[in-house]
Amino acid sequence: MKVLSTNIATPRSIHWKGREEKTGIYKLPVEDPIYLEKEDVRNDHVIDRRYHGGVDKACYLYSADHYPYWKTKYPDLEWNYGMFGENITVEGFDEKNIKIGSVYKLGEATIQISRPRQPCYKLGIRFGNHAILKQMIDSLLSGVYVRIIDPGPVSVGDKLQLIKENDDGISVAELNTLLFHYDENTHLELAKKALMDTLVSDSDKKYFRKKIKAY
Q1: What is the mean pLDDT of residues 195-213?
Q2: Strand 59-63's sheet: what is its strand order?
Q3: How many CB atoms lie within 10 A of CB 207?
Q4: The dihedral formed by the CA atoms of 167, 172, 175 and 179, expressed in degrees to the nearest 10
Q5: Are 86 and 136 a contacting pair, CB within 8 Å?
Q6: Backbone phi, then psi, for 156, in 5-degree steps?
Q7: pLDDT of 12-67, one tens digit each?
Q8: Distances, alpha carbon 207 to alpha carbons 111, 179, 195, 198, 210, in Å
Q9: Which residues, at least 6 apart from 54, have a Cβ–Cβ distance to it below 8 Å?
C-alpha cells in the first residue's frame, strides 16, 4: 500500500441549523510531508475535539481505490484527494483486509489501526448532499482512524507496511457491520469476538453492545 496524497485543512465556516460553525473537513493535498503526532496531525486543524483528534483518532486514512466509486455518484463535484477529510490517501487499502489493532509502518511513523470512521453531517455539507452519510455506512467504505505509536513524518510515495497483524482480530469492515448492520442471527459470534478483543475501542464496544440481547 502506498501514500498517494497527504492532506491538511484550512478551517472554513459553514452554516448548519441556523448557526455558523467552523470545520476542518475541507482538506487539500500538500507538497511537504505531514507529521503524525500522538493526538493529531501537526498543523492540521481539528475543530471539534469531542469527535475528532485524540489518541484513538489521531489521523484518518482513506483509500484512493474508493474514489472512482464515489465519483460515479457525485460526478459534478470538483474532486481532489482529501475529499473525505482524510489526512492520508492510500492506494491499495481495503477495509475487508485491514484488522483493528494491527500495527503498520507509515513513512517514519508507526501506527495502529483503531476505529472506522462514523460519518457526520459535515461530510454531507462537504458533498452538498446528506445522502452521502447513509451511502458511506451502507458501502462499508469508511476509511479508518489510527493511533500513533511512534510519531513521525509521512510523505507522498511512502509505504504502509504491516509490522504486526492482530491475527485474532476483526476487520474494519466487520466492525462497521457490527456498528451499523448488526443482525443477531448472523453476527452474534462476531460480536462476542469483538467484545473480547482488547484492541477494539471501548467507545465502539459500547455502541454495538446495546444491540446485543444474548450477550
Answers
A1: 87
A2: 27-29, 2-9, 88-91, 59-63, 144-150, 109-116, 103-106, 160-164
A3: 16
A4: 170
A5: no
A6: -55, 135
A7: 777 777 777 778 788 999 999 999 999 999 888 665 555 566 899 999 999 999 99
A8: 24, 7, 11, 15, 6
A9: 39, 40
C-alpha cell at 7: 492532506
Distance, CA of 150 to CA of 27 (rounded, Å):
24
Residue range 74-101, pLDDT digits in tens: 999 999 999 999 999 999 999 999 999 9
SS3 116: strand
CA distances in angstroms from 145 to 54, 100, 196, listed in the order given: 10, 10, 20
Q: Are 24 and 47 in contact (CB under 8 A)?
A: yes
The three cell numbers locating residue 87: 489526512
pTM equals: 0.92
Amino acid at 208: F
Nearest of 146, 116, 118 to residue 55 by alpha carbon: 146
Element (H, E) at 4: strand 2-9
Q: Please, are residues 166 and 94 in contact by the beta-carbon 8 Å criterion?
A: no
From 21, 128, 137, select the one nearest 83 (Cα to Cα). Answer: 128
Phi, psi (degrees; rounded to nearest 5) at 12: -130, 155
Angle at CA 204, nearest 5°, toward 59 and 191?
130
Strand 109-116 versus strand 34-36 pairing type: unpaired
28: phi then psi, degrees, rounded to nearest 5: -130, 150
